[in-house]
Amino acid sequence: xxxxxxxxxxxxxxxxxxxxxxxxxVGLCGVLDGELIAWNAECAEGCVELxxxxxxxxxxxxxxxxxxxxxxxxIPSEIGELINLxxxxxxxxxxxxxIPSEIGxxxxxxxxNLGGGQxxxxIPSEIGxxxxxxxxxxxxxxxxxxIPSEIGxxxxxxxxDLYWNQxxxxIPQEIGxxxxxxxxSLPDNQxxxxIPSEIGxxxQLRVLSLTDNSFIEGTFPAWVFELLNLEVLNLxxxQxxxxIPxxxxxxxxxxKLFLGExxxxxxIPSEIGxxxxxxKLFLNExxxxxxIPSEIGxxxxxxxxxxxxxxxxxxxPDEVCNLIExxxxxxxxxxxxxxxxSTCP
Length: 345
Prior knowledge:
By secondary structure, the chain is mostly beta strands. The protein has helices at about 320-325, 330-335, and strands spanning about 45-50, 55, 60-65, 70-75, 85-90, 95, 110-115, 135, 145, 160, 165-170, 185, 190-195, 205-210, 215, 220, 230-235, 240, 255-260, 265, 280, 285-290, 305, 310-315, 340. The strands form 5 sheets. The protein has an 11-stranded parallel sheet, with no helix packed on it. Strands 16-18-20-22-24-25 form a 6-stranded parallel sheet, with no helix packed on it.
């Protein structure tokens, strides 16, 4: 079953030079820059044709073709000629084939979004040339192979989204170089090995999602507690074992905590009740035992709570019952698959 999506919002920023417009002015390419051209038309010298649109090599800084039905097939290698391009948004199109290595020529890019297509093959190592990038978004494709270590060169990166591909191998430790990252999303791939402790260097992270991979992580990674700015932590289904450390209370900016579908054991630490900003708490489908701590009742901002399919026992504390009633939480997501002696009235 697929998990919650952590997908960055893709905003539309259109420029008058190379986005569809109602203007009748003729651009430098002999037609209106970025407009569809006739099948028998050609772009002027000094211009590049991409998906039947002309873009001037020297002046084009922005290509924003979010969700355009006419943008399909392979990404032409000629895109690498647009050396002054700063923004390339091809999100939700019918793109196929591999990402051309020529994309590494676009060293002025700050924003690259190729998500929502059918791209295949490996992420080219030349991506590491794009050292001005602050956003790299490649989700919902069929990309395979390993995450290139050259991604560690992108020291200005703030958002890295590789969600829902077919990436394999280990997360490169060079990812720890990306100290400006606030959003790291790698779920629903086929990543293996240990999660590199270097992720603990990314102290600006607000969102970390590694769910649904095949890591051999073992016990709860201590480096997580270095990430004091985290608002969303999703470690669902990554083979975690052992107890939930009491240090979880250090992450007091957390709004969403997902630790379900692991092999976590022991009791739910009462310190979770100190995470006053929590809105979602999922500990379902583990091997947790003992009673629910009464301190969970302190989480008055909760609107979704799952403890189902553990080995919890005893009575549900009154404080938790009051929370369930006041916040209209689903009782069956708490009691199902557990061994409570009594539940809430």
